[in-house]
């Protein structure tokens, strides 16, 4: 299977201060590095999950892929092309192939537009005149399992799950190949969460869609994704097939995240908390391995030297001097 | 029973007035919070769990009408208390930690000012002592350099720190009951685990009770002693945490447990759901509220309202099938 999307050594940085102010204040690094040297490929028809805590750069990475934030270095190849380097017409064409589902189903829908306007707005934005918008609205609503009379409703008349479905319908409008879904189930009840995930996987089967799912919900990731990456302070600390990572997490951070998931079983209560503290500020990156400040296994080497990407098995890599796998195997 | 309970809700019914008529948000809800225990309330959006917690602390919105029942806090009814009685109660003997630590702290006052303000009842204490108490409270919830941090403003803290501060403020008056309404929803899993651990440790120290409201079954299993399952404004099942997670008797509880992806061991693309929707609370079904979505419903469920059936002394379920 060929890769639909290939991200190579991608860097995204935001300036914190202007160059003159930074010099006056004596600040050496006036940038905030949100994404640092990230590389991965997503095969057509598969689901790739980006996992990390708040501030890990997972949403920024998603936005950089679709061109909503500028890329500082690196490449985004889609179907063998690099659309973001080309003309604005090429970027517009690229955005018809790649759709984004934003966080917060209700807030990402304009409260003043009807469902019909919301889900057919992509046609208007991309200048696709001459389409029968009523017919398109009916088609999209049917696709996401909503009754046709929802076309006349406003976002405040929708439940959380219905609003999510409208978000899916809007993303599907231009028949994209890739959908980037930012926290598709955040804020939904467990029973509704399953419905949305089932809808996404049905659409994947029927329409051959490729997904990048950005989430912090590991229980969901395990069921829906083929490959995953764990992000921390803008880097991939571990990346590989979901099944392998859940079975044998190599990085202590991955292990800590998995251990932090509460078990819905009162007889399996955890006595201690493995991951203490919080993500350090991106403006003050720790030296060496950025995770060493929270790592239960950190040693001298980790404080001084940043670990390079190490390939464990083909397709499964990590950045850790002392991976957990060696100890297990 | 009520004597050794900090909080005892008896047959509470609350309506919200709306332009379309009254919304029956809570209907004959009863639950007990035994002294020193952690009671979890589980429910999906719209189940009434927040209404219940707000009723307990006397903070119901203006359009809420109590149709009947009592909320007994140490045998005194919160619903009939005067404003000054409620003021003595809140923040002192009963306090609350809200869902969003971004909005529950005042952004224009420093943490220290806010933590001194809420000690206004302690006339005997001077400002220095109040400050010392605030520092001790912050230390207790694991905030480093509490002394210096006291002069900082809420935006200078991360989300996890802010929720710790909110908990510290809630515990400042050594309350008998702490109500935590989805206190970790806005936090990452690693912080969530830390907050849950903190609540468990604090309970040992402050010897109070906690009413913990959440839709996250994992957290409920992790933290609570007793569990109350709310559905569409009714308590459909309650029992010890072992009862609920190992021997659920109400089909809704069973369905909720089945839906949790964390409980599904084998990887699968198709996840279980609960078909149908929560009933419209403007017109509550006269029979069983869960019958329209229940996989086990039979004719009787659609015509006759089930009673609360006691099971083994600690558990009860509002279901016709729970009799056997």
Structure explained in plain terms:
The complex is a heterodimer of chains A (329) and B (324). In chain A, strand 10 and strand 11 (316-318) form a beta hairpin. Chain A is 33% helix and 22% strand. Chain A has a domain at 3-52 and 69-229: 3-Layer(aba) Sandwich (Rossmann fold), CATH 3.40.50.300. In chain A, helix 4 (115-125) crosses helix 5 (133-143). With 329 residues, chain A is α/β, with parallel strands linked by helices. Chain A is globular. In chain A, the strands form two sheets. An eight-stranded mixed beta sheet of chain A has the order 5-6-7-3-8-9-11-10, sandwiched between helices. Chain A has a three-stranded antiparallel beta sheet with strand order 2-1-4, with helices on one face. In chain B, helix 4 (127-140) packs across helix 6 (159-171) and helix 6 packs parallel to helix 7. Chain B is an alpha/beta fold and 324 residues long. The model of chain B has no long low-confidence stretch (mean pLDDT 91). Chain B has one domain: Rossmann fold, CATH 3.40.50.300. The longest helix of chain B has 18 residues, at 189-206. Chain B starts with a strand and ends in a 6-residue tail after the last strand. Chain B is built from eleven helices and twelve strands. Chain B has helices spanning 49-56, 83-89, 111-117, 127-140, 146-149, 159-171, 189-206, 217-223, 241-246, 251-259, 299-303, and strands at residues 5-16, 23-34, 38-42, 64-73, 76-77, 94-97, 177-181, 209-214, 226-231, 234-240, 308-311, 315-318. Classes of the chains: A alpha/beta (329), B alpha/beta (324). The A-B interface holds A 53-54, 159-160, 189-195, 197-198, 201, 216, 218-220, 222-224, 243, 256-257, 259-267, 269-270, 272-276, 278 and B 44-45, 158-161, 188-194, 196-197, 215-222, 241-242, 245-246, 255-257, 259-264, 267-274, 277.
């Amino acid at each position: 299977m060929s890769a639909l999307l290939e991200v190579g050594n991608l860097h995204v940085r935001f300036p914190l201060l202007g160059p003159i102010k930074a010099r006056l204040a004596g600040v050496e690094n006036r940038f905030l590095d949100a994404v640092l040297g990230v590389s991965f490929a997503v095969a057509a028809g598969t689901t790739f999950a980006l996992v990390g805590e708040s501030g890990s750069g997972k949403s920024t990475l998603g936005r950089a892929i679709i061109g909503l934030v500028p890329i500082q270095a690196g490449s985004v190849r889609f179907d063998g092309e690099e659309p973001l380097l080309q003309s604005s017409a090429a970027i517009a064409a690229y955005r018809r192939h790649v759709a984004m589902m934003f966080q917060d189903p209700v807030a990402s829908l304009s409260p003043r537009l009807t469902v019909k306007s919301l889900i057919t707005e992509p046609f208007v934005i991309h200048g696709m005149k001459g389409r029968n918008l009523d017919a398109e609205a009916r088609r999209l609503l049917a696709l996401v399992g909503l009754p046709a009379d929802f076309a006349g409703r406003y976002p405040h008349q929708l439940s959380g799950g219905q609003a999510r479905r409208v978000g899916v319908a809007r993303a599907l409008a231009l028949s994209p190949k890739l959908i980037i879904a930012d926290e598709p189930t955040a804020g939904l009840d467990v029973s509704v969460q399953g419905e949305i995930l089932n809808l996404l996987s049905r659409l994947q089967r029927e329409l051959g869609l490729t997904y990048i799912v950005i989430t912090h919900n590991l229980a969901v990731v395990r069921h829906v994704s083929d490959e995953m990456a764990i992000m921390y302070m803008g880097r991939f600390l571990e990346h590989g097939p979901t099944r392998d990572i859940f079975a044998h997490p190599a990085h202590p951070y991955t292990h800590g995240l998995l251990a932090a998931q509460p078990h819905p079983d009162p007889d399996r209560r955890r006595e201690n908390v493995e991951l203490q503290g919080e993500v350090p500020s991106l403006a003050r990156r720790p030296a060496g391995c950025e995770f060493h400040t929270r790592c239960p296994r950190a040693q001298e080497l980790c404080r001084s030297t940043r670990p390079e990407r190490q390939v464990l098995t083909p397709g499964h890599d990590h950045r850790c001097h002392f991976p957990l796998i060696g100890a297990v195997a | 029973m009520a004597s050794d309970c900090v909080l005892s809700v008896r047959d509470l019914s609350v309506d919200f007035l709306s332009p379309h008529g009254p919304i029956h948000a809570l209907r004959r809800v009863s639950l007990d919070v035994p002294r020193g225990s952690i009671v979890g309330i589980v429910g999906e959006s719209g189940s009434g769990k927040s209404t219940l917690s707000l009723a307990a602390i006397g903070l119901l919105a203006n359009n809420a009408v109590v149709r009947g029942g009592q909320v007994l806090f140490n045998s005194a009814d919160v619903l009939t208390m005067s404003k000054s009685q409620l003021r003595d109660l809140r923040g002192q003997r009963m306090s609350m930690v809200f869902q969003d630590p971004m909005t529950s702290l005042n952004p224009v006052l420093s943490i220290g000012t806010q933590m001194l303000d809420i000690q206004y009842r302690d006339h005997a204490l001077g400002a220095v002592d109040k400050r010392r108490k605030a520092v001790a409270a912050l230390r207790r919830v694991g905030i480093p350099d509490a002394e210096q941090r006291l002069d900082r403003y809420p935006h200078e803290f991360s989300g996890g720190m802010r929720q710790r501060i909110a908990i510290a403020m809630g515990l400042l008056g050594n309350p008998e009951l702490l109500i935590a309404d989805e206190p970790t929803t806005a936090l990452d899993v690693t912080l969530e685990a830390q907050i849950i651990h903190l609540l468990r440790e604090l309970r040992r120290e402050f010897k109070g009770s906690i009413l913990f409201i959440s839709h996250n079954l994992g957290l409920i299993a992790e933290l609570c002693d007793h569990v109350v399952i709310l559905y569409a404004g009714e308590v459909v099942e309650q029992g010890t945490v072992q009862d609920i997670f190992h021997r659920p008797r109400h089909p809704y509880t069973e369905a909720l447990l089945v839906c949790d992806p964390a409980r599904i061991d084998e990887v699968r693309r198709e996840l279980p759901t609960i078909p149908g929707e929560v009933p419209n609370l403007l017109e509550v079904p006269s029979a069983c509220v869960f019958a329209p979505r229940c996989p086990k419903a039979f004719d009787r469920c659609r015509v006759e309202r089930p009673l609360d059936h006691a099971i083994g002394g600690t558990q009860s379920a509002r279901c016709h099938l729970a009799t056997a």
